[in-house]
Design goal:
The protein contains nine helices and 15 strands. The chain is globular, with a radius of gyration of 24 Å. The protein is an alpha+beta fold and about 350 residues long.
Length: about 350
């Protein structure tokens, strides 16, 4: 289903004084742009990063362009420059980011808003905290003489309630410096100098992992193996490094579970996880699922998982998004299996 053009639009106004500093208009645009970038990055499936710029694919889909500024006031109309066309109810990446921004503003306007409610929109607490920080910096103070209003998808602009700024502040927390994480991948590099570090090729890309001296022999035994590692992620020079201190933290495990697919560049969580058997041979990963007929060969784990997710999406299009009567009996069986895995709500 093609999303309406209005889904890509937003407008805002600053009122209350005869002269509005230009820097306030620029600041409001920058904060709302950052919010949309964060949401687009989240829906694309990227993990929250400690710092750094957004990927180009996010900028291409979610950058705002001014389409109209009314003279004599601070009122601007903007829209995302996303050139994609949504073919499902999900819409494009930029459209979904715009929609989620609207949902967040509506939720934050309620006196009894809770962080749990916001967590239904953004399930990543680290990402949610970054978005809340942008809202807090943009939101008018109770003492301010100026008001800020936003309108989305061609709807009437709604005023941001200054009394809610304190509520937003109460939901902010200090950025988490450390957090527990489980990663799946292949151990492919070892350093036994004072840093004691291995590198793991994971579906997210390469991850560095530090280990303590007492488990060095156990770590050496895992070189070249596909494993699951549980540890603590700690910030280090602009990125997170996984740290482990027990041999129980690392386990050989050649089976990965697909938990999502991408449709129209938007990550969709699967209702049922899909088990994938993975081997590494002749410098390539070989992954398969016999029930669904999935088979992929790639030199990098990230490319491997992306291909498998792509194959699952193709199966969905070829067996679910078609007339069921056109399918052979075996095709109908596969269709039911896919609906069970992805979820009937996505049909």
């Amino acid at each position: 289903m093609v999303k309406a053009f209005e889904e890509r639009k937003l407008s805002f106004s600053i009122n209350g004084e005869e002269k509005i500093p230009a820097i306030e208009m620029v600041s409001a645009i920058q904060h709302i742009q950052n919010i949309i970038f964060h949401l687009g990055d989240y829906f694309y499936g990227n993990p929250s990063r400690p710092k750094g710029d957004f990927p180009q694919v996010i900028k291409d889909s979610c950058t705002l362009f001014v389409t109209n500024i009314e003279m004599g006031s601070v009122h601007a109309e903007m829209q995302i420059g996303d050139s994609q066309v949504g073919i499902t109810e999900l819409g494009t990446l930029g459209e979904r980011a715009i929609c989620a921004t609207n949902e967040l503003i509506e939720a934050l306007s309620h006196k009894d808003v809770s962080k749990e409610e916001l967590g239904e929109i953004i399930k990543d607490p680290h990402r949610l905290n970054k978005v809340l920080k942008e809202f807090y910096l943009m939101w008018p103070d109770p003492q301010s003489k100026r008001s800020l209003t936003f309108g989305f998808s061609g709807k009437v602009e709604e005023k941001l309630n200054p009394e809610q700024k304190e509520v937003i502040q109460s939901m902010l927390h200090k950025p988490v410096e450390e957090y527990e994480k489980e990663v799946f991948g292949r151990v492919y590099e070892l350093r036994v100098d004072k840093n004691r570090r291995i590198q793991i090729d994971t579906p997210e890309g390469p991850i560095d992992c530090n280990f303590t001296a007492d488990i060095e022999d156990d770590i050496k035994d895992t070189i070249g193996s596909i494993v699951t590692i549980r540890g603590v992620m700690k910030p280090f020079k602009g990125k997170f490094v996984l740290s482990i201190d027990s041999e129980a933290s690392i386990e050989r495990n050649p089976q990965y579970y697909l938990t999502s697919i991408k449709r129209d560049e938007i990550e969709v969580k699967l209702k049922e996880e899909v088990p994938i058997d993975i081997e590494f041979e002749d410098d390539c990963y070989i992954a398969s699922n016999d029930d669904l007929g999935l088979l992929a060969v790639q030199p990098k784990m990230k490319l491997l998982i992306e291909e498998l997710r792509g194959q699952l999406n193709v199966l969905w299009q070829e067996y679910v998004l078609v007339d069921e009567e056109e399918l052979a009996p075996s095709g109908k069986d596969l269709r039911e299996m896919l609906i069970s895995i992805v979820g009937a709500q996505n049909v």
